Amino acid sequence: DAGVIQSPRHEVTEMGQEVTLRCKLISGHNSLFWYRQTMMRGLELLIYFNNNVPIDDSGMPEDRFSAKMPNASFSTLKIQPSEPRDSAVYFCASSLRDTEAFFGQGTRLTVV
Amino acid sequence: AQKITQTQPGMFVQEKEAVTLDCTYDTSDQSYGLFWYKQPSSGEMIFLIYQGSYDEQNATEGRYSLNFQKARKSANLVISASQLGDSAMYFCAMREDPRRGGKLIFGQGTELSVKP
């Protein structure tokens, strides 16, 4: 298996634009986590899914952020409209029900 | 509510020496998992070691061992025989009972620098 795959690896966008981050889970995994990493706030859990169902989205900063799992192997995190303070590295990670999570390489987002 | 605390923002260790990275946690769950991850300067998150709350023996993986003290709610990572390549950020993480959703949260991290 190729591991968790995130795209794009880098994204530079202008304030106000819509940004979509993508994540392909490891085949067979049924838990999916989205994290945001910044120097100031560390690794924040934004939202996580079990079996395609969102379980806890209390970490999503505001309504500008949304996440979906249209199928068992794929997820998107969308920011609309984007703001400079959204600049961060966004990670997704997948796992089986109660095992270690495997991380993608991350998407470095810069909003100018 | 769950919480993970890493009180050492930065640590230094001499090459070939052992080092302990501290981690304490708070949870009301009886069943939970504890993890350590390594993040080198290249940015990827690498899983190192896992300890289940019901495991009676401390987990070991090569040069990594997890010093699990359940009553004190601590899960310290011990790296033996440090190598220059061990220089990185280290994160402690906890996964809640899967019957309650299995949320996985991380501490703030400890930056380890190994000196030659």
Provide the helix percentage of chain B: under 10%
Helix content of chain A: under 10%
Report the major sheet of chain B.
6 strands, mixed
List SSEs of chain A in N-to-C order: EEEEEEEEEEE
Helix-strand sequence of chain B:
EEEEEEEEEEEE
- Percent strand of chain B: over 45%
Low-pLDDT residue spans of chain B: none
Strands of chain B, count: 12
Mean pLDDT of chain A: 95
The count of strands of chain A amounts to: 11
Radius of gyration of chain B: 14 Å
How does the helix and strand content of chain B classify structurally?
mainly beta
Major sheet description of chain A: 7 strands, mixed
| Tally of DSSP helical segments of chain A | 0
Strand content of chain A: over 45%
The overall average pLDDT of chain B, rounded, is 96
**Overall body shape of chain B:** globular
Cα gyration radius of chain A (Å): 13 Å
Oligomeric state, counting identical vs distinct chains: heterodimer
Overall description:
The complex is a heterodimer of chains A (about 110) and B (about 120). With about 110 residues, chain A is mostly beta strands. Chain A is built from no helices and 11 strands. Chain A has strands at about 5, 10-15, 20-25, 30-40, 40-50, 55, 65-70, 75-80, 90-95, 100-105, 105-110. In chain A, the strands form 2 sheets. In chain A, strands 2, 4, 5, 6, 9, 10 and 11 form a 7-stranded mixed β-sheet that branches. Chain A is globular. Chain B has about 120 residues and is mainly β. Chain B contains no helices and 12 strands. In chain B, strand 7 and strand 8 form a beta hairpin. Chain B is globular. Chain B starts with a strand and ends with a strand. The mean pLDDT of chain B is about 95. Chains A and B meet through strand 4, strand 5, strand 9 and strand 10 of A and strand 5 and strand 11 of B.
